[in-house]
Amino acid sequence: MSRPNFLMKRSLQIYLTSFGILTVTIVLSVVVGAVFIPLDEMFSVFLDTSTTEAFSAILLKVRIPHMVLILLTGSALGGSGAAYQGLFRNPLADPYLIGVASGASLGAVFAMSTQLPNSALGFYAIPVAAFIGSVVTVFLVYSLARVGKTVPATTMILAGVAVSSFATSLTSFLMLRSSGELHRAVSWLMGGGTMGGWDPVLASLPYILIGLGVLLASGHALNVLQFGDEQAHNLGLHVERTKLLLILSASLATAAAVSFSGVIGFVGLIVPHVVRILWGADYRHMIPLSILGGASMLLAADALARTVLAPQVLPVGIITALAGAPFFLWLLRGVRNQVFAQP
Amino acid sequence: MLEINSLSVGYNDRIILNDISLSVHPGEVVALIGPNGTGKSTLVRAISGVLPLQGGNIRLCGRNIKSLTADARARSLAVVPQIQSLPASFNVYQTILLGRTPYLGWLGQAGVRDHDAVCQAMLQTKTDHLAERSIGELSGGEQQRVLVARALAQATPILVMDEPTNHLDVSHQTAFLNMIRQLAVQCQLAVLVALHDLNLTSLYADRVVVLSDGYLKAVGTPEQVFSEEILSPIYGNQLRVITHPEYGTPLVLPAGPEQEYAPCGRGYRIETSVETRVHAYA
Questions:
Q1: What does the alpha-carbon distance between residue A43 and residue A27 come to, in Å, rounded to a whole number?
Q2: B24: which strand partners?
Q3: What torsion do the CA atoms of A191, A193, A194, A198 make, to the nearest 10 degrees?
């Protein structure tokens, strides 16, 4: 038997499909909203032919930067979710498992409640505070979970749950104390924090690119880790170094995403599962497909969030769970016996 | 070749193994035996570098294990673990390919040589017909062979196995150990294998290492080591050793049932348990 090509054909097919879906959702995200932009108008903006100035302004200053930010956020959540599920070998793991979201929430709500937006940092006080909150939380969880020289997955998850609960309590307390900002805080916590313009895109881009770049290169290491820390060690992997690198990269990408968009739930949890059900659990493909899937899902959810009650914009986190959960359950019902039933 | 010199290992402050010295030469199958909880698995974990050593040293082909990088260690020593639940979503080919990890870069891009090594390992372990099957749906014997194939794909001169025959029936046990002997001789592997079954050990091992209470009690050929004087105190049981009618190797027979049984007072125990339950409800 020579090199197995029984997977090659299928993987080409699934990548083409994924890119196809992503393209459709990108176009959808750009054309829909409070004002519908016809496709021919959209293309004429790019081809620099005659077009109405209003459409051009909406596209270049509002729709496209927003689309790119959502695309980056969805990619970060999908890719990190897949990495965390592989790293912790736990199907319930999502990008927020070890406290990124609760730390970011605490930072953001703290910034809102103390009126930091009026300070020198200006409008950026909230994302900066959220980013600091999430990074501090992840480091706290990681150092609390250390046992000697190793960081076992179980202690990491437990430390993550404990620290998250602590941060969430503080967040709730801050929200109760500052009723003036309550509506804004609640909206942020449901993923309604997306900021406009190109600046948030440029600010989050490096973190997300670096984080996802490392994850994309770590597919083989994640495959090895599926057999447990000890077997991974015996196969020649630097287990603790690899884990730390994966945690840092996934957390960095997630923190950057959450800081500019608020807490968007469910994408990072279900997209990797959908990929696993439809394709299989080889992490060399799980990570890129989850990145593509996360971006597509969030773009679609965001397009819905902007149209359902237009001109009002719903927090996208509501849509991801409302539309995503039934879809996921439907998928799960069909195949759960094949994929999740352990012998 | 694997050399262990006056090794001491423990968890935290508790010493599990004291002053263990042994060596395994190429082409030789050395069995590690001893009662439950005497540190067979601990020794395997120490050799594989998972546990820090508290004394002594381990040499793989002449080089101290502490001075080796993770890659270099995994190119000298492969470990076949006890079967636990394996990730069901991997197929056999993918699983065996992971044995090439120490030869691959960070991206894990496998080349022609890696695929050839996998194919050869599958042929040697008769797992080639399983290539596309998910490892979760294989039988215990097949899973164990896949793990050996993964270790062979690592292309190491030393192979260490932790009770690989645990979940196999007697025919699969003998088939498995035959395969291991054949690999040791054909590929000149130094094989150290922890085993439970004394009679299989006697049939298939070139040499036997007996561990008891964290100390090395005896080393030698099965004929030298398998005597009533050595084994009975270690297993705390009056064992009988006879000669195999066909191969002339020693066979170890367990002690029979005791002649008199003390009454266990079952009725009394039931009464008290009911009483305590009543108290608990009241």
A1: 10
A2: B2
A3: -150
Asked if B84 lies within 8 A of A228 by C-beta distance, the reply is: yes
> How far is residue A289 CA from its own chain's centroid?
13
Measured between CA atoms, the residue of chain B closest to residue A277 is B89
Distance CA A73, CA A261 (A): 7
Q: Is B190 exposed, middle or buried (0-12, 13-18, 19+ CB in 10 A)?
A: buried
pLDDT at B29 exceeding the cut of 90 = yes
> Which of helix, strand or coil describes residue A326?
helix
Band of residue B186 on the pLDDT scale cut at 50, 70, 90: very high
- Judged on CB neighbours under 10 Å (0-12, 13-18, 19+), B172 is middle
Which residue bears the tokens 């080393």? B219
Distance CA A343, CA B134 (A): 11
Superfamily of domain A31-335: ABC transporter involved in vitamin B12 uptake, BtuC (1.10.3470.10)
Rounded Cα–Cα distance for residues A190 and B51 (Å) = 45
Q: Do B48 and A233 touch (CB under 8 A)?
A: yes
**Count of H-run helices and E-run strands, chain A:** 15, 0
Which of B102, B112, B119 lies at the smallest CB-CB distance from A236?
B102
Q: What sign has the CA pseudo-torsion A196, A189, A95, A270?
A: negative
- Answer yes or no: are the C-beta atoms of A134 and A103 closer than 8 Å: yes
pLDDT tens readout for residues A50-65 = 566 777 777 788 888 9
Closest chain B residue to the Cα of A215, Cα to Cα = B107
Encoded amino acid at B135, one letter: I
Q: Is A234 helix (H, G, I), strand (E, B) or coil?
A: helix
CA distances from B132 to A217, A281, B128 (A): 25, 14, 9
How confident is the model over B153-166, as pLDDT tens digits? 999 999 999 999 88
Nearest CA to A296 out of A83, A30, A71, A31 is that of A71
8 Å CB contact of B98 and A224: yes
Q: Measure the CA–CA gap between A287 and A76, rounded to whole angstroms.
A: 10
* Residue (of A8, A229, A293) closest to B45 by Cα position: A229
What is the model's pLDDT at position B266?
Answer: 56
Contacts of B46 (CB under 8 A, 6+ apart): B7, B9, B17, B53, B58
* Integer CA distances (angstroms), B246 to A73, A312, B205, B226, in order: 72, 88, 17, 17
How far is the CA of A93 from the CAs of A78, A84, A89, A280, in angstroms? 12, 6, 8, 17
Helix-strand-coil split of chain B, %, nearest 5 = 40, 25, 35
Residues in B closer than 8 angstroms to A339, CB to CB, are 89
Cis bond leading into A311, ω under 30°?
A: yes
Dist. CA B161–CA B112, nearest whole Å:
28
Domain boundary assignment for chain A: 31-335
**ipTM for the assembly:** 0.86
pTM for the whole structure: 0.86
DSSP characters for B189-217? Answer: -EEEEE-S-HHHHHHH-SEEEEEETTEEE
Asked if A95 and A70 count as a contact pair (C-beta separation under 8 A), the reply is no
CA distance A26 to A299: 7
* Of A83, A65, A69, A74, nearest in space to A295 by CA: A74
The reply to whether residue A236 touches residue B71, judged by beta carbons under 8 angstroms, is: yes
pLDDT at A2: 40
